Amino acid sequence: MPLSEEELRLLEQMERALVEEDPKLASTLRGTSLRRSARRRAIVAGVCFVIGIVVLMTGAIARITPVGIAGFVVMLGSATIAVTALRGRRAGHAEPRSAGHPAHGFTVIDGGRSSRLRRSRRARAGGTFMERVEDRWRRRREENGGW
């Protein structure tokens, strides 16, 4: 489900705050090192998955149940790590959201008192962020018949 304009704006504000507080971390996050490490994790997890299959089959052929269970646990753990790594990589290659919202990297926007004033007015008008999220969740559940 795509993010709403409000959620995109809040995310961009958080990104700006990160850049202001820790520019070194922000520049590190922009780099490709995260993609490279995710790819490496996925490859290692794939190799571990194959090793888990070998251990599982060895336990099944030798009729040693604990070895088979250990192989299954290795397969399950490596599959979880691989899926997590691949999901993270896919999120990094997302399509651009719109012309005003870049898909990656941090952008610099104006800050200061004006944004604080707008935020306080918005909070009074629509409630806190969590209240708005809960209201939105409640409406979606009602529209979909309880699901």
Number of helices: 6
Helix content: over 70%
List the secondary-structure elements in sequence, H or E.
HHHHHH
Rg from Cα: 23 Å
Total beta strand runs = 0
Structural class: mainly alpha
- Morphology: flat
Q: Provide the β-strand percentage band.
A: under 5%
Task: Point out poorly predicted stretches.
Answer: 93-103, 112-116
Task: Measure the end-to-end span.
Answer: 15 Å
Arithmetic mean pLDDT: 76
Biggest sheet descriptor: none
Write up this protein:
The protein has 147 residues and is mainly alpha-helical. It contains 6 helices and no strands.
Layout: helices, strands, pairs:
Layout (H helix, E strand, L loop, with lengths): L4 H17 L1 H8 L2 H30 L2 H28 L20 H14 L2 H15 L4
Organism: Nocardioides panaciterrulae
Pfam families: DUF3040
Protein name: DUF3040 domain-containing protein
Q: In summary, what is this structure?
A:
The chain crosses the membrane at residues 42-61, 67-86. This protein has 147 residues and is mostly helical.
Fill in the keyword field for this structure.
transmembrane, 147 residues, flat, mainly alpha
